[in-house]
Amino acid sequence: MSMEIVVASRNPVKIQAAKDGFEKMFLNQQVKMTGINVASGVSDQPMSCKETLDGAMNRANAAKNALPNANYWIGIEGGVEKCHENNAMEVFAWIVVLSLDPRKKGMAKTANFYLPQQVIELVDQGVELGHADDQVFGRSNSKQNNGAVGLLTNDVITRSSYYEQAVVLALIPFKNQQLNFPMPLRQNATYRRCLQEPSQDSSNIKSQMFPDESFTAEGINIPSGVNDQPMTSRETLDGALNRANGAKEKIPQAQYWIGIEGGLEKVDGTDAMEEFAWIVVLSQDKRGIAKTASFYLPSPLIQLVEQGMELGHASDQIYGKSNSKQQNGAVGLLTNDVITRESYYEHAFVLALIPFRNPSYTFPLPE
């Protein structure tokens, strides 16, 4: 028997991303996909995290109302948000998954990356991001093809694979039915504005972004300068910046220095707690920054973390593992390694390399 999935869009990129995500999380199920055009209820170009989430929720609810006999309904909404610092503008999307059980839903936010100044100027003038991309990069209808993320990474990350990772993360509550996952509610949730060394061989990722160059990677222990368990996005970004800068000071003859810091943040006004990581890449004269996709933790993990336990140790205790923080981590445990901790970081690492892959553009970044 197949699962019927309704995607609140007829955009083929979104339908494919949803299909791939469901098939990876539910290996023994056949999926039947239906796309339907519904109103987002927000601007054509959402300009904040909250507006973008509202759009995804509105789409999912409208799809469920229009085709109520399916098993799942999924809304995908892309948006941008301007940072206060340096005129930086981040790009992301929200994924919302609804099921027949009105008490259960899944939500996740894609990894974010930063736009070049030329695109920011057009968006600030009221041009939708897809049209701005077409104008700056000389393309046509890129929003239904590879999008900004594909254009800026040379399709190392396609728009479909960009969404797919977050679809998998949004399906975590349905894959772990025995656990309760507090989710943020629009009416009282507050989303904060933007503001250790890699566990995998980062040279492999650089080779994808720079296929004509060879790389070697070296790990070095550098203090983060923040708490062992960062509890805000700002603290987590500071940890990644401190690690990258510390590595640069210690081994100044390298070409690149990378800081990766994982963190958590409670969504204000709710019981929800999201997990993410910040990636910082430095060179002699340039830097790149990206944030991984965000997903929500189950109540047992939240309770232990709020008692002062680091997430890795809490995961070990709940799942009966040992040293999971240096293996698959919470993301691997909750997705059954559909997304490993390594692939979770790698996705954002590619996005952090965008300024180096596109040296002719200026990328305002948060401090």
Automatic annotation (TrEMBL):
Keyword terms, alphabetized: Hydrolase, Magnesium, Manganese, Metal-binding, Nucleotide metabolism, Nucleotide-binding
TM stretches of this protein: none
GTP-binding keyword on record: no
Entries under SUPFAM superfamilies matching the protein: ITPase-like
A Gene Ontology molecular function term of the record: metal ion binding
A biological-process GO annotation: thiamine metabolic process
Cofactor: Mg(2+); Mn(2+)
E.C. code: 3.6.1.73
HAMAP family hit by this protein: Non_canon_purine_NTPase_YjjX (MF_00648)
The protein, known as: inosine/xanthosine triphosphatase
